[in-house]
Amino acid sequence: MSDIIQLLPDVVANQIAAGEVVQRPASVVKELLENAVDAKATDIKLIIVDAGRSLIQVIDNGSGMSQTDARMSFERHATSKIKTADDLFNLFSNGFRGEALASIAAIAHVTLKTKQENQELGTQIQINGGEIISQELISKPTGTSIEVKNLFYNIPARRNFLKSNTIETRHIIDAFQRVALTYPNINFSLIHNDNEIFRLPTGNSKLESGNLKQRIVNVFGKKIDEKLVPIHEETEILKIGGFIAKPNYAKKKRGEQFFFVNGRFIKSHYLHHAVLGGFENLIPHGYHPSYFLYLTVPPKSIDINIHPTKTEVKFDNEKDLYAIIRSTIKHSLGQYNVAPVLDFEKNPSLDTPYEYKNKDINSPLVNINPEFNPFKNEENSKSFFQKKDLNPSWESLYASVENSETEKDNTSQNLFDADIENSGNSTFQIHQKYILSTIRSGIVLIDQNAAHQRILYEDFLKKITVVGIGKQQLLFPKEFSVNKNDTQIILDLKSDLENAGFQFDILKNEIVSVKAIPASLKEDQIINLFEMLIDNIKNEVPNSNFSQFDSIAKSLAKSTAIKKGTKLSIKEQEEIVNNLFLCKEPNFSPFGKKTFITITTKELEDKFNF
Fold first, then answer.
1. Is the four-CA dihedral 223, 225, 231, 232 of positive or negative sign?
2. Residues 229 and 173 reside in one and the same domain
3. Which CATH number covers residue 545?
4. Which of 104, 376, 405, 430 is buried most, with the most CB atoms less than 10 Å from its CB?
5. pTM exceeds 0.70
6. Tens digits of per-residue pLDDT, 131-177?
7. 3-class SS of residue 454
8. Cβ neighbours of residue 90 closer than 8 Å, sequence gap 6 or more
């Protein structure tokens, strides 16, 4: 039998490795930015075009590379960070496995320009699909510039899996923010399609914490400044610093939650649970706090080489870190009077006034009439000692019983009347949450909120895409602030939102000024709807213009649907029942929740005959 095992060509091997390292344009951004940081750059510029599909370029003023190093950097497993296996447990830099540039070059058109400070000329290398096209000397400033064009051009299947430009841009911004937050002492800027989205200077603060807070504010907007509470603790196994947000700013959606360990962004559900423990009893169930926590641990106590993206790590003393993080957060919330505490200090307002301190206390005077006799009046004494009638008529014995029974009947009747207010009607509202109606085979229970969402969703979607939706002008513009990331999402959706009946502008300092809204929307629902829309765009990953319309319709429906706890008239109940079953998809709400359940007569009989 002939041999069947063979070595893969380098190009194929690099393309396979690229599947692990490069999942989307944001993966390339992460690798290139981290390389620039490792090169000791103090100024890093990221330029992207078409959400990274056409161009990803990173320009830095770092140390640069020699001609030989520039060529070697595109070889697999070529790195300057490690030499032995022991070096894996003593890492403070980012890229170390030497796969990033080789993987990127295998699936794109790459141009590298680099120059060291002590060299007169720099080096330019062009690589297409892993094949070197040219290498030559050029004149350029000190540092490195790397261009990645036409990503996945030779793997069309992978390119087809990319999402819309809005979603891919958001992932790029997320990767950019993580690196920018990790290194607040480096200038960063991001330009997308010739629009400057971020310019993040290092600031003038001499304190690292001052630069960090300024960086957080520059990334997420000025509104976050009032939310932040500093946190700091040092032990033998952990140094922790950064900021947490006040409990009253907790959100239902996860966001603005960052862990950094030894200068590297990580994800850890275990440590996240420790943070939630620090906020115990301070935030409602289902809400999530914001935090920016920077951990420094001994390099040998952490393994960062357990996942290709290096965002998941393993600690050898997780339980100790858990306890320290939890207690540190509790301490900071109490120290800054954010958490409720028992105050044992003396209240000055309860002190004796100064002018009364040395005065004598006079006993109160009591006037007594020694001649007073309560029995002096004979009539009073007779009435006082008069005995009650011990032989009442027998009819009176039942009077109180009858009255009692009548009261019970009235109470019972009132109880049932209150519970079933619309007896004799075709629908009943239960606990102001569900609508009960009869059907031929039994009964149907409808969730009024989920059902109304489905009705409104299909109506909004039809109006937005086919009929056209009316709008109402606001007497005074409604203004609210968002962070830069969310501003970009709103700008990308502006034309679709205008088709949905909105009219708004983006002012300076990330202020959204809304001038007109859909006719069915209330003014006090505007902010909630925009926040919900942004969350839907972030989490539901739309990949076409229709999906963006779909997300807008969902957000409108969820914001304007009747809520649980709303009392409905008989007519309103019947309208919901009738309109629900006229929908194209009546079984589920726009978010996948059941709108109704049915209980057959046979199931009801079984309940009574078990």
1. positive
2. no
3. 3.30.1370.100
4. 104
5. no
6. 899 999 999 999 999 999 999 988 888 888 888 888 888 899 999 99
7. helix
8. 299, 300
